[in-house]
Amino acid sequence: MLQRVFVYGTLLTGMANHYLIAPYAKKITPAQARGLLYALPYGYPAMIAGNGTVYGEVVELTGGEEAWRVLDDLEDYRGPGCPDNLYERVVQKVCLPGGQLISAYVYLWAKPDELPRIGRLLVHGDWRRHVRGS
């Protein structure tokens, strides 16, 4: 199983939920992915497929299944295609500094059609920038 995840919101270094992933982080690298980022009224973001750029980090994980259990619980991910999922965990190419493309898991919002109604598109694609208010 792939042991990398692209994070773009509260799991980022310095953000509210980073403490959950920190014990399992072997290496953290700035990265970006194709997609659209929305700010939700609940205090966290959601990403969906799209032609924008979302800024975040690739976290190389240790801890195997335990690390994925922690992440899946946070993201309300119950399994591929489960109707109770808040997010879907999918493999996507992400871009590292220098342009290298690698595969990583990304948690995408499970019901993308509802995002324009419940969220606000962050055109700049940067959760940290949104939190800072710039």
Question: How would you characterize this protein structure?
Answer:
It is built from four helices and six strands, in the order E-H-E-E-H-E-E-H-E-H. It has helices at 18-21, 64-74, 115-118, 127-132; strands at residues 4-7, 25-39, 45-61, 87-95, 101-109, 120-121. Strands 1-3-2-4-5 form a five-stranded mixed beta barrel. The N and C termini lie far apart (38 Å). The relative contact order is 0.27.
The biggest beta sheet reads:
5 strands, mixed, barrel
> How many strand segments?
6
Strand order, biggest sheet? 1-3-2-4-5
Helix content: 10-25%
Q: What is the H/E string?
A: EHEEHEEHEH
Termini separation comes to 38 Å
CA-atom Rg in angstroms: 14 Å
Q: Kindly estimate the percentage of residues that lie in beta strands according to DSSP.
A: 35-45%
Q: State mean pLDDT (0 to 100 scale).
A: 96
**Helix segment count?**
4
Shape: globular
Q: Would you identify the regions where 5 or more consecutive residues have pLDDT less than 50?
A: none
Overall SS class:
alpha+beta
Question: Which features characterize this protein?
Answer:
6 strands; five-stranded mixed β-barrel; 134 residues; alpha+beta; 42% strand
Secondary structure blueprint with pairings:
Layout: E1 4-7, H1 18-21, E2 25-39, E3 45-61, H2 64-74, E4 87-95, E5 101-109, H3 115-118, E6 120-121, H4 127-132
Parallel strand pairs: 1-5
Antiparallel strand pairs: 1-3, 2-3, 2-4, 2-6, 4-5
Compact summary:
By secondary structure, this protein is α+β, with helices and mostly antiparallel strands. Helix content is 19%, strand content 42%. The protein starts with a strand and ends with a helix.
